[in-house]
């Protein structure tokens, strides 16, 4: 059995083209870092200026589509056979979704985002550094980490999981489009779609890893005085790469599952500690008010643009988030499809659109809310530190709480385990995409992609820091956003032909009307 994946994991066209593109970008960033940074800024500006509208309307549509499916009779269809059962317990399932989908970014932005909005208003002439600014900051942070993000993952996962486990096909993105283009559609088009999916996944994942490495670098410097800079970041990336390659050798049910549960425990410990040591009543009231503001402003924020003022706040925040999430949606989609096998579409949609966002709101409310309280009522300067260096946000908060060094260490460990879990999952999925063996890809491919991911991350950080990471996400997210729309059309077309009992009743009603 162990030899079978290696035999099926051939290094075909998808691997060679996608690996060559990624390696070329990494080498280019090393050779001409200054020009690479300038090019990154140009790409970021061009895409955000001309295609922001596309990201906004697409992501809003993803959420509407998934909610409709969950509430319709199609929600009874399982991602698997009618008699199939979930492979993982609910707790482990949610843990893996949370760790793979949100971990690194949420730890990075959990304090940095609400404090940024508190200091610089999302609206021209809006309130800053007062009670109204605090409320708006929490509501907008909830919006960015709520249903919209997970609707992107949900669309990709639904199309891939339905094709793979309901129709018993492979888990490739190109295969999920067969209901739209036919089972024999152009081979070159198939390869191009899978190559795009791989490149999008690796660049999106590199953005997440890069953010995490930068935050760990800043945290080690602030908490323990370890020199910050390129050398530390390279060492951290190398150690992380080695550990997630080691983790991936244990397989999905052991390595990733164990680390995902560890992530949940660490995140829970930090959240409970901050709630206990921080302003508990203020935190809970902030979460309730933030949730109400999020719900009441959901449509307005989802479709908000700034064509009349010429401001770029939406592009810098919301559009970046959506492009980043779209960029690594092939990975998260494939992964959530893999761990959601046997669950109904209704359970799948409700699970990913409700539970992870609620956990995110608790994290942002506890940590971000405590940071806002500290600045608002205690006269601290966490917001000012965030504007200077957003990697310092989390550790600036811990400076205002007891057991600073202990919980700084736990936060760094949490970032690291989130990175390992996400990178572990990503290499598993990308290895499957480039070999066609999505159920159990070969170890050789996992290691190759692990090394390439680490290399790309380091070069992007060195070449342009956050700008290069953002540009990579936008560049990969734009074309894959179109693919996600095609995946919606494909899965909708296939579901209309679904032969399960609920669909038969629906078809009979339709026939009676036509008689």
Automatic annotation (TrEMBL):
The entry's keywords: Cell membrane, Membrane, Transmembrane, Transmembrane helix, Transport
InterPro entries according to UniProt: BCCT_transptr
Topology versus the membrane: Multi-pass membrane protein
Transmembrane helix recorded as keyword: yes
Subcellular location field: Cell membrane
Transmembrane segments: 12-32, 52-71, 92-112, 142-162, 195-216, 222-246, 258-284, 319-337, 349-373, 406-433, 445-466, 472-495
Entry's family note: Belongs to the BCCT transporter (TC 2.A.15) family.
Name the record gives this protein: Glycine/betaine ABC transporter permease
Organism field: Salinicoccus halodurans
């Amino acid at each position: 059995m162990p030899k079978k994946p290696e035999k099926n994991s051939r290094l075909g066209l998808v691997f060679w083209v996608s690996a060559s593109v990624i390696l070329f970008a990494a080498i280019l960033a090393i050779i001409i870092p200054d020009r690479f940074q300038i090019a990154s800024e140009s790409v970021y500006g061009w895409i955000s200026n001309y295609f922001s509208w596309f990201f906004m309307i697409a992501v809003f549509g993803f959420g509407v589509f998934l909610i409709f499916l969950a509430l319709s009779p199609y929600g009874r269809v399982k991602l698997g056979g009618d008699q199939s059962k979930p492979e993982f317990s609910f707790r482990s399932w949610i843990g893996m979704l949370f760790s793979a989908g949100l971990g690194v970014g949420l730890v990075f932005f959990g304090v940095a985002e609400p404090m940024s909005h508190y200091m610089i208003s999302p609206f021209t002439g809006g309130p800053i550094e007062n009670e109204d600014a605090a409320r708006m900051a929490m509501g907008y942070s909830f919006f960015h980490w709520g249903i919209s993000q997970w609707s992107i993952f949900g669309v990709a996962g639904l199309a891939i999981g339905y094709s793979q486990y309901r129709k018993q096909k492979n888990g490739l993105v190109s295969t999920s489009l067969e209901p739209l283009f036919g089972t024999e559609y152009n081979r070159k088009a198939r390869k191009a779609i899978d190559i795009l999916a791989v490149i999008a996944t690796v660049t999106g994942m590199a953005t997440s890893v890069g953010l995490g490495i930068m935050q760990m670098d800043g945290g080690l410097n602030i908490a323990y005085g370890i020199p910050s800079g390129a050398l530390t970041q390279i060492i951290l990336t190398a150690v992380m790469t080695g550990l997630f390659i080691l983790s991936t050798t244990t397989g999905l049910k052991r390595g990733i599952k164990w680390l995902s549960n560890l992530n949940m425990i660490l995140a829970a410990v930090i959240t409970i500690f901050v709630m206990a040591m921080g302003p508990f009543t203020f935190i809970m009231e902030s979460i309730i008010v933030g949730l109400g503001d999020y719900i009441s402003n959901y449509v307005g924020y989802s479709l908000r643009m700034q064509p009349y003022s010429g401001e770029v706040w939406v592009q810098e925040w919301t559009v970046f988030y959506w492009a980043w999430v779209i960029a690594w949606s092939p990975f998260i989609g494939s992964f959530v499809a893999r761990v959601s096998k046997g669950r109904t579409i209704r359970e799948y949609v409700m699970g990913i659109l409700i539970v992870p966002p609620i956990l995110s709101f608790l994290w942002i409310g506890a940590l971000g809310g405590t940071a806002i309280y500290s600045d608002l009522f205690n006269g601290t300067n966490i917001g000012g530190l965030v504007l200077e260096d957003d990697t310092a946000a989390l550790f600036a908060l811990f400076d205002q709480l007891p057991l600073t060094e202990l919980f700084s260490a736990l936060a760094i460990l949490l970032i690291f385990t989130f990175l390992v879990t996400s990178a572990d999952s990503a290499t598993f999925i990308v290895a499957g995409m480039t070999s066609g063996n999505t159920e159990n890809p070969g170890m050789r491919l996992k290691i190759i992609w692990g090394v390439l991911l680490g290399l790309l991350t380091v070069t992007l950080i060195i070449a342009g820091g956050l700008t290069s990471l953002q540009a990579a996400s936008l560049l990969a997210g734009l074309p894959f956003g179109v693919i996600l729309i095609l995946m919606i059309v494909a899965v909708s077309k296939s579901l209309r032909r679904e032969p399960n009992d609920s669909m038969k009743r629906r078809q009979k009603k339709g026939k009676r009307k036509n008689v």
